[in-house]
Description:
The chain has one domain. Helices cover 76% and strands 0% of the residues. The protein has 12 helices and no strands. The two termini are 16 Å apart. This is EamA family transporter. Keywords: Membrane, Transmembrane, Transmembrane helix.
Amino acid sequence: xxxxxxxxxxxxxxxxxxxxxxxxxxxxxxxxxxxxxxxxxxxxxxxxxxxxxxxxxxxxxxxxxxxxxxxxxxxxxxxxxxxxxxxxxxxxxxxxxxxxxxxxxxxxxxxxxxxxxxxxxxxxxxxxxxxxxxxxxxxxxxxxxxxxxxxxxxxxxxxxxxxxxxxxxxxxxxxxxxxxxxxxxxxxxxxxxxxxxxxxxxxxxxxxxxxxxxxxxxxxxxxxxxxxxxxxxxxxxxxxxxxxxxxxxxxxxxxxxxxxxxxxxxxxxxxxxxxxxxxxxxxxxxxxx
Length: 289
């Protein structure tokens, strides 16, 4: 059953990237992140209430709570980096870099959690890295995208997102042991909420909701709903299955992101990019197997 939840996480994660990209063209990425978090938290709290797991809060020990809080902080940092990267660059370019968190997660799972890596899994790691590098190459489609070049800085933010996402998965795996998955998700999301709004306050990027474009605001909030659904599926899967398999499956959400980037955002993809995508997916499947 955990495989089903992992696949659901991939679907909703892929939709999140496209909805967010369409919703942060005029809305600042930090503010957009803060606006999304209450929606995610509401979804998580609703699931906690439906399952009646709120009574477990008092039984959570300090160590487990610490891991969950640390995971929430890593998540907040990953989000801030990811949505800034989406605002500066194309979704079809940002997504592959973010998926490098899979490689980092697997390596950390081996070192910190003692999870094994087979020869097939090692091959998958290599395929993912090579595929990602190919997907960054713009030489075969640069002439078809006048005026659509990414702004400077998107790559650094995308890499930051990958690093913090890997830490999120490992810390979440450590903190979710013995804690009902939706309750763990709600605790982590509450941490992200505080962190995101603190960033808005410090940076002075708050704007009245009435001053924000309604369509973009709706898309930002919708991306919060898909994120909530993805998280609930992801951490439910983590509770029963190995992180080194669940994370690669979750990253197959890139197929959803790329498809919608082409169909909805009208982003162009070259042959080199598609070849890299095939390698990335093949590597992901190899790691999952």
